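Researcher: Quick one. two chains, 574 residues in total.
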Amino acid sequence: MTTASVRRNGRRGMFYWQLAFTLLICLFMIVPVVMSVTAGLTENYFVGLSSGLTTRWLVEVWNLYAQSIWLSIYLALSCLGVTLVLGIPAAYGLLKSQKRWASLVEELLLMPVAVPGLATALALLLAYGGFRGFRSSWLFILVGHVLFTLPFMIRPVLAVMQSINVVKLEEAASSLGARPVQRFLSVVLPNCTSGILAGALMVLTLSVGEFNITWMLHTPLTKTLPVGLADSYASMRLEVGSAYTLIFLMMILPFLIVVQWLGQVMTRKASARVS
Amino acid sequence: MSPDRRESRRQPRSGAVFEGRSVPKGRRRLRGWSWMLAPALGFFLAFWLLPFVRLIVMGAGPDNNTGIAGYWMVLTHEQYLSSLMSTLLLSIAVSVSAVLIAGFCGYFLARHQFPGKSWLLSMLTFPLAFPGVVVGFLVIMLGGRQGALAQLSLWATGERWTFAYSLTGLFVGYLYFSIPRVIMTVMAACEKMDTSLEEAARSLGANTRQVVVDVIIPAIRPALISTGAICFATSMGAFGTVFTLGTRINVVPIAIYGEFTNYANFAMAAALSVILGLVTWISLFFARRLSGEYVGGGA
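Model:
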């Protein structure tokens, strides 16, 4: 055997070792999810699969926690609404303002993400906890969610605005006689759709899954899905917790698939533009 | 910029022009559009900055039991120092292990094409969206009293082995949500890297170890350090996982929660939160400077 072929064989051996290691890590990521899904669908997890499959745990979760699931959906959509209203103008403002200012403002708006949710929630509670009506309504949680998700709306929108050269488009529009507001609504916004879409998906996923802030801010009447999850893990049987997790997974799965699909479309577009 | 100019012409002459200096262009642009930032900034000021400044002030207040200022208590009392140290060590251990393990996987996935790769990649990265509570539950599935390990060890040795309700369980949980993030960052860095460097090193006779140490790691070092810093910050501030695993594990988020809900010791809770926030903010700031990437802790 020549040295070259020895090296080639060696590299092929390396390939299989690396693949095996990667598969092992993949098992670590997947096995607990599969176990949890199975547990949520088996009659009795202590006995095992032989006790039969059932949907009764899913039904039980629905009976116990349907309200928390609805509240989470409602909250996520409201959070999306608020971040759209606050975030898109903010991205435009950042684009138009001086670089030094823009980076300072962006750094500030990122603080609620950089600081643990527990600290943000504590600050909110100590400052506004005294306003009984506000504290006990779902709006209190909404404020926390908006603080946490707003940067994830601003960032992709700003990135798209920077990449499509909004300034040039606007110059063209204004030379055709469009007024500033008209330019913003009919030229800038439609050109940012992909960024808005990416931001919206991120905001929805984060809001539905947010726990750290929500746990501190919730009241017995304003329980969200993750709060209910923690509740069921602590006080219900394993099958119920698993079934609830299964419902959560089914809720976020469509978002994740769309995000992945969007990412692929975007990279394909980008590579098409390069070549 | 013509509309801006038109607007400024319509405006009455401002003091700046009377003094013979025109307003700098950047300032003029800012004035024209800064109102677009106002709603977001107003929201942020009212609901985050002001409350947080108050939190910083409260942290200097006296502790309920000893009357010593909160920050000083954290830095001098063994109870708080030990939870701070164990959280720091745990987070460092998590980020180093995650970078090693996922760096290896990410490099492998970026460099090789094989059937089923996209499936493998989706399975490795979809747990990115799991909240901390769910990750905690998955750790219980692996190492809890009815977990995979307990069942295996029961079958093999007749005993139930568990690790979920301890620092080990927390380590496994944090590793679980760090791995997908590191894999994605490392893959992106490797795809940007010039493969000809690697080929050149090989054709000059470098063996695999030399290629890895001298070519690949230096090329993706910023990505490795920044993703490590993000994992560190996330592990420092994470609350959901440890909350699910049991509130007896001595880490800072649990200490904050305990001080606040069990003892209503607001000064200590505030002091601990501010110190924790400072640590995570610094490490994320550092990560952003290194990579320009825009990610924060979340779990």
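Chain A has two domains: 1-54, 66-274.
Researcher: Thanks, that's what I needed.
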